[in-house]
Amino acid sequence: MKLYFRVLKFLAPEKYQIALTVIVNFLASLFSVVSIGTLLPLLNAVFSPESPPPPPLPTSEQTSFFRETADSFKNEVIDAFQRLVTAETREGTLLNVCLLLIAAFVLKNFFVYFSNQIVNRVETKTLKKLRDTVFAKIVEMELAYFNRNRVGTLMNYVMGEVNVVHGNIGASFIGFLRQFLNAAFFLAVLFVISWKLTFFAFAVSGLSLWSIRVLGRKIRAQADVVQAQSGDMNSLLQEVFNGIKVVKSNSMELREVMRFNAFTDTYRRANLKVNALRGIISPFNETMGVAAIALVLWFGGKQVFAGEITSVELMVFAFALYSVMNPIKSIAENIARVQEGLSAAERLFALIDKPIAIKNGTKKIERFEHEIRFENVWFRYGEKPVLKGVSFTVKKGEMVGLVGQSGSGKSTIVDLLLRFYDVEQGRILIDGIDIREFDIASLRRLFGVVNQEVILFNDTIAKNIAYGLPNEATSAQIEEAAKIANAHRFILEKPEQYQTLIGDRGVQLSGGQRQRISIARAMLKNPPILIFDEATSALDNESEKIVQAAIENAMSDRTSIVIAHRLSTLKNADKIIVMEQGEIVEQGSHADLMANGGIYKRLYEMQFATQPESISTSE
Description:
Blueprint: H1 2-8, H2 15-37, H3 39-47, H4 65-85, H5 90-140, H6 143-148, H7 151-193, H8 195-242, H9 244-249, H10 253-305, H11 311-353, E1 371-380, E2 385-395, E3 399-404, H12 410-417, E4 425-430, E5 433-434, H13 440-444, E6 447-451, H14 461-465, H15 475-484, H16 488-492, H17 511-524, E7 529-533, H18 541-555, E8 559-563, E9 575-580, E10 583-588, H19 590-596, H20 599-609
Parallel strand pairs: 3-8, 3-9, 6-7, 7-8
Antiparallel strand pairs: 1-2, 1-4, 4-5, 9-10
Helix pairs in contact: 2-5, 2-7, 3-5, 5-7, 7-8, 7-11, 8-10, 8-11, 10-11, 15-17, 17-18, 19-20
């Protein structure tokens, strides 16, 4: 129940609208009962004699406080109805009853419509809030979380799981309120007519409610399987669509289709089980409802024979009992739906409650003044250390290169500097302060990062360049950043220039153009520190020359850290750090390292011996 009420907290900001919904549903339920209540004077007007005898007084055996109170209230209600509709003739009375019946249904349906509109607003707003909360939590998670979870699973959290929770708990709660009010009013009618008959009816219905509870537990267990498979399906689609070139180049379309067919077959069978359990609920409830009414007619008939109620009251009781079955059936179905939603809610709140491994600092850092220092830094992804006691310094204004074989820890150094991860031992200092003390957003604003894998969005060129400063960048600033990145010229050749849409992941641009847009995006922030992580490794020679020129423009008068697989690009670096198996084995200028005759010289000579396309030393 704690989990259920936690979900309902998302409805709390809409409490005034929910209160209005309760009031409107109260009125709708009231007029539903009025419409049923008009049957009694209607039947009396048609089938009773001109002056119907007063209801029989209870015998001494029947006399009790509860009975006397119920009979008194019933007689007052009937008298009020009869005074309202009674005319001089039976025909006039009949007309008044029919007009009252129409008015009651018109008012009832008006309030039902009004209620539906309010509920729709509450539900859509609640759904938005829950989805926004889940998405915000995922985005805030550390990079390691994304490495551990498949993209399809994360997408399923935001779309599938949220829809299940909202549809089966949030919406069910609103439906429960409505049906509860309906049931309460109709139950009042039943108790007024005959409390004995009412208790008998619900004693018969107890089996139905117990069965629904058992079915609800089974549905929840099976719903876990369905939602897990839904996440796997999203992951499978993501893999195939992102890797469609690999699929086609290897002629694996048929294999992927067969793999997807097998998966959807499993998914279908899981859904069949859930739907089979759901499908039992409605017919089972209806069957039990009819059985209850049949038994009630039998028991009520005996009360008619005993003179406790009239035959007309029994007919109204049967009609009201049938009317109360629908809201009770809906309540039972909502209980089953809640069980299904709770399994998804459990997963969502496990995500929302998950602590973020990277703790935010409190200090703001506005500028970079002196140096970046790594002091005895250790880090591991799994069991094997990736960095082992790494120590070095980057002075302000220096260009520092990182080289080494794949897996040597170069990119990990950059990830730690940006606090995508935290060091296990040692520390990283900027201007003498541990970076863990800094506010993460202010820390990252110091850096402009250009990666080997360029991420562009399905938007205009201008908005991709301005991604880091979406509300601050002017057209002049965007163009200036593009000029520094050698991108301005080719942008002007596009049909819409800076307003040109570049498609999903920038498919409308060449590799070199995408990389220059990425550099322009980094330059727009005017960061004091630039990081280039294999920025030219995926480009052909011609594109590499253009992008390299853009990089050299960008690095002017800035501190820069460059991870490069083409060592010729680091000849002018102030310092080159050579890494091997997570350790720094050499550092110095290009000339010093060549003179030392160590690993750097071997890598340099090996690369130029194969002219010029060598095996990448990126991670």
